[in-house]
Amino acid sequence: MTDGLVLPPGAGRAIQGAGMTLKVGADQSGAWSAFETEVTPGFDVGAHLHHNAEEFFYILDGELDLLAFEPRARTAGDWQSWQSASGARVMRGGPGSAMFVPAGCPHAFANPGTAPARMLFLVSPPGHERYLDEIGEAIGRGGPPDPAAIAEIRARHDIHQLTPMTVGRPR
Asked: What residues contact residue 106 under an 8 Å CB cut-off, 6+ apart?
């Protein structure tokens, strides 16, 4: 029998340059990876999808705009204005809000406020930490990140970006 893992608050492996802490990863689980993350004001992950991964997001503190549906039309700009065929729109979620994303579903989150938000997220299959390590390394080299290098990293890790990722001031 294998022992479990118990972590005190703040424990885990920091993902360099990503504002995330890996709580459980591929080294511990064959089913999923778990992260705690701080989403800074103005950060927008951009709408994207994974062909093979499922994700679950749970807001602990603050507010985030959340998207988890196929829009009537995938526009290259602002995903916050997207609407699904059934009328679903982007939702502003606070503490206790959750978002499940099945494989192939466009999704995004952004912090439109002036205070950081914190969330827990799970990714299945495990190993998303390898993508985050590579992105953190690419961004941490100084200067603006190379878009071609970022696109290549994303493509290798089952991430199809639909709208740009941005880091900046709140809307």
From this structure: 47, 48, 49, 67, 68, 69, 70, 71, 74, 79, 162
pLDDT tens string 33-52:
999 999 999 989 889 999 99
Residue 151 CA to residue 159 CA, distance in Å, equals 9
User: For residues 53 and 51, what is the distance between their CA atoms, to the nearest angstrom?
Assistant: 6
Residue 76 sits at φ, ψ, to 5 deg, of: -75, -15
pTM for the complete prediction? 0.90
Mean predicted confidence (pLDDT) in 107-120: 96
Strands laid side by side in the 64-68 sheet: 91-93, 64-68, 107-110, 48-49, 160-161
> Using CA atoms, how far apart are residues 150 and 142, in angstroms rounded to an integer?
14
